Amino acid sequence: QWRQHDHNKIALAEALHDAYNDAAEDLDQFNKSPLSYACYSRDADGVEMLLHLNPFAASVKSDNGQYPLHILCDFGAKGHHTGKLDRIMTMLLEKYPQAAAEPD
Prior knowledge:
Structural class: mainly alpha
Number of domains: 1
C-alpha cells in the first residue's frame, strides 16, 4: 500500500509535468527552481518527484551561487528533521555530487 501511494504521487507529478512541460525546469526571478524551494522547505517527497522529472535540477545554481544542496544545508538544518535531511541529501548527491565540493 505504501509503495502504491508513492507511485500515485509520482504519477500525479508526471501528469502535471505533461500538462505544463516546463514546470520542473522553470526558474523564478532569483534563478531558483522548484527543487530549490523543495529543499528550503525540507520536502523529501517533493525533492524526489522533482528530481524524477528533472534530474539536472540538482546542478542549477541560484543567483546567489547556491545549489539545491547548499540551500538544504543552510535552511534544512533548522529543526530536527535528520531522517528527511539524510534522504534529501542522498538524492541530491546522487544526481550532482560535484555540489558537495563547490563553495557556497
